[in-house]
Amino acid sequence: MTLIVDSSMALAWCFEDEQTASVMTVLDRVTEGGAIVPQLWPYEVLNGLFVAERRRRLDRERRRLLAKSLQSLPIEIDEETVGQAWGPVTSIAEKFGLTSYDAAYLELAQRRKLPLASLDQDMCSAGQALGIALL
To answer: Which CATH superfamily is domain 3-129 in?
Structure first.
């Protein structure tokens, strides 16, 4: 089964103190069945890793290894994300008071009719209201 995975979930895979059983189950699902992400996902994940490096949560070598590991996962980047920005993404962001980034994940999950794996509570609440399955 394919799913949508956001940057909060992907970054949790990178840090031992965030690797709960449910977080690691999502990683197993992605490894086995792949995932789909909006076009902004690589930028968000890389930014999270750079921030962690600046905060001395990891060093440069570890950041590079984690980035390479995430890049090697069977994750498809959705080519239609940008085309949804001015319409459905904006509507979702306005309706739920979300960032356009978060709304992009919800729009993708809704459009592809796939579950969303996120640790972001606001995004999960909006997803629930939209009838999106959550992991």
So the answer is: 5'-nuclease (3.40.50.1010)
